[in-house]
Amino acid sequence: MKVTGIALALAIAAASAAAVVPPSSAEPLQALLDRAEALRSSDPREFSATLRQVEALTASATADQLEQLQYLRAYELAYSGRFDDAIVQARTLFEASDDPGIRLRAGALAVNSLAATRDFAEGLRQLDRTLELVERVPDPELRSHAWFAASALYTQIGQFALASHYADRVLVASRDPRSHCFAGQQKLEAEYQNFLASEPDVVIRPPSPAEIEETIAACDALGETIVTSFSRSLLARVHEQQGGRAEAMAILEDNLAAIEGTRYPRLIGEVHSLLARLYFENGDDARATQHAREALARSSEMAFSLPLVQAHETLYRVAERRGDFAAAFDHYRRYAQADKAYLDAVKARELAFQAVRQETEEKNRTIQRLDDQNRLLQLEQKVAQQAARNTQLLVALLLVLLTVIVYWAWKTKRTQMVFRRMAELDALTRSSNRHHFTRSAELTLDRCQRDGEAVAMVMFDLDEFKSINDRFGHGVGDWVLRQVADACRGCIRRADLLGRIGGEEFAVLLPGATAAEGIVLAEKCREALHRIDTQSTGRDFRISGSFGVADTLRAGFDFNKLLASADAAMYAAKRGGRDRVAVFTPDLDGMSPP
């Protein structure tokens, strides 16, 4: 829709509101959605106000408009810093929508939000799934969402060449000035960071002030204050790096009001910490202290923030220069803690990239191996048809096949050793998977039998879990499973073993415990499920479970018998009305599920 069309639709909506008459078609609603899209990064307050207007008209919305609204709500959550909620909503939309375009946008938003919560490994996995949709989306402007998310994520994890590559893809494919604004700034930032990270003997040119000023002018004309402010921060850093401290300070001071007006904590903290360092190096301790404290106030919620490190360092150096060694020691201690947290975060980002890259390479190798095997089978068929003329080729192919098998056998064994620990855990809940739970439980039962110790088993199943999945989607269902596992981990002892043994079935093995102690634990877990707050999913529902308890005094030390006894007790709890604890008795032996 053109700008004039948006203005006309908004005028119609305003006139309808003044007359207290609801809209008679979907056009005003779509106009408001288009307006919200245009405002979402340039004017956050007006964007939120427009969303509230849209929400008042949802009764007349189409399915596509409701999905667009769900995406914008998730965007609003992310912009306001509620990244966990944004991730849930964006991923729910990503899984539920049939529209590749809206799925790609939701996936890109989930990538950005996961990066903001420092979950880089999951962010990279989500990025892979999102980039798979690019070929199904013909619109280059929609494709740019995925490429820009890739550029932003790779910048954060220190893969600056990849970040620059994906920013270039946006610049080449998109004709939208706004996309060029965002991608241009991201490319300049990646080039600057690549310059800083380069080895001394490697010649890499940083972006020039003229290039940055060109991007600033383009973004400023679009009203993209946040992107413009990030670019000005970059311009100040480049000037400082080239010896222009005065120019850097002037740029930041002249635009400080606009930067603070964005209400974006990361950006504001970065600018204040930079100003603090510049004023300190200029000999102005008072203003250095003022800006450093402002940076701390803006960055206090970001434990891995570089502005937090730089602000503490400035305060430490100011106190040292003043001779206030008590304050200097205190600030140095805080600086050291913040610096360690930041360096740990950098290392975690690098490890996450390497781990996910290994996962991806292993998947690609598996696919390549299957392709190789298929090609070899085809060649073998041809060899069988022309055996007389192709004997030498057949021998060569068999040697290649043997080499491939030996190589992949060695590679697979090596990979299994590296990821052995990962194979023991359920990827969703981070509790023991069924195989590892069974193996560990059998070893524990053997040991306890030798030592004459009792063992209790608690097994539970979530009530009406299929209904949660059917009503709210598998994204919410996965969230429930994670919350349940976390809640139960808070109840068990260190020696106890928690495992996910089925879709929504969990079990806890309690060495050295009887059924009475198992009942106590089961009640704790049952009450913990009640306390799980589901509001963050955007849904209001209750979580409960049915628990069964058995011990070796009645069921013996055979794992399968003990598990079957706890299972029978659990189904007795379900028959008794759910959300309760039942204990195994001999009369339950062999009883089938309801």
Q: What does this protein look like?
A:
This protein is mainly alpha-helical. Among the domains are: 1-61, no CATH class; 63-137, Serine Threonine Protein Phosphatase 5, Tetratricopeptide repeat, CATH 1.25.40; 345-422; 434-588, Alpha-Beta Plaits (2-Layer Sandwich), CATH 3.30.70.270. The chain is built from 26 helices and five strands. The protein has helices at residues 3-18, 27-39, 44-55, 63-79, 83-96, 100-116, 120-131, 140-156, 160-173, 177-197, 209-221, 225-241, 245-254, 256-261, 265-281, 285-299, 306-322, 325-385, 391-418, 420-423, 434-451, 465-472, 474-489, 515-530, 552-555, 559-575; strands at 455-462, 497-500, 505-511, 545-551, 581-583. Strands 2-3-1-4-5 form a five-stranded mixed β-sheet, with helices on both faces. A hairpin with a 4-residue loop joins strand 2 and strand 3 (505-511). Keywords: Coiled coil, Membrane, Signal, Transmembrane, Transmembrane helix. Residues 453-586 form the GGDEF domain. Residues 353-387 form a coiled coil.
